[in-house]
Amino acid sequence: MLNRKTEKLLMHCITENKENVYRLAYSYVRNKDDALDIVQDSIFKAMTHIDRLKNPDAMKSWFYRIVVNTSLDFLRRNKKVDTMDHEMIEIYSPGTEDVYRDMDLTRNLEDLPLKYRSVIILRYFEDLKIDEVAEVLNENINTIKTRLYQALQLLRVKMNDEPSKEITQYE
């Protein structure tokens, strides 16, 4: 009975977060087909290992962690760098305002080391709270706060910007 209920919760979680999960996978591999494969593999892993989920309330972060780990496994296996396709450039810069700034942000974000990029993507693009980011990345909350601070510092330096309120919050 519990297993069936947990499976239903998982299916609901996958359905409700499908765009976010795809975007998360894409942020790692930067290729549509590879991102779709990662999402598919992640769903398979989640379905086959549903019994390992101890707290059904943590379903979303558990599934995000599977997606992140599957993405990292893919990168380790393939050791390749893909360029961004034209369709994704359009998505990242949809309007005419601040097109260059958006492209600079995207480029600078891609240049960040993976541990910093992951924190930024999960926190700001996936809108997860600090504790959820820590759970997804299987790290201590203070480690995530430090990485977020350092990542924002690196981005600020790269973009030659003034300190934002978000950065000073962790000082």
UniProtKB/TrEMBL annotation:
What keywords are annotated for this sequence in UniProt? Sigma factor, Transcription, Transcription regulation
The answer to keyword Transcription applying to this record is yes
InterPro entries xrefs: RNA_pol_sigma-70-like, RNA_pol_sigma-70_dom, RNA_pol_sigma70_r2, RNA_pol_sigma70_r4_t2, RNA_pol_sigma_r2, RNA_pol_sigma_r3/r4-like, WH-like_DNA-bd_sf
Whether Signal counts among this entry's keywords is no
**Domain RNA polymerase sigma factor 70 region 4 type, residue spans:** 105-155
* Domain named RNA polymerase sigma-70 region: residues: 14-80
Pfam families membership = Sigma70_r2 (PF04542), Sigma70_r4_2 (PF08281)
Per the record, the similarity remark reads: Belongs to the sigma-70 factor family. ECF subfamily.
The name this protein carries in UniProt is RNA polymerase sigma factor SigV
Source species taxonomy: Bacteria, Bacillati, Bacillota, Bacilli, Bacillales
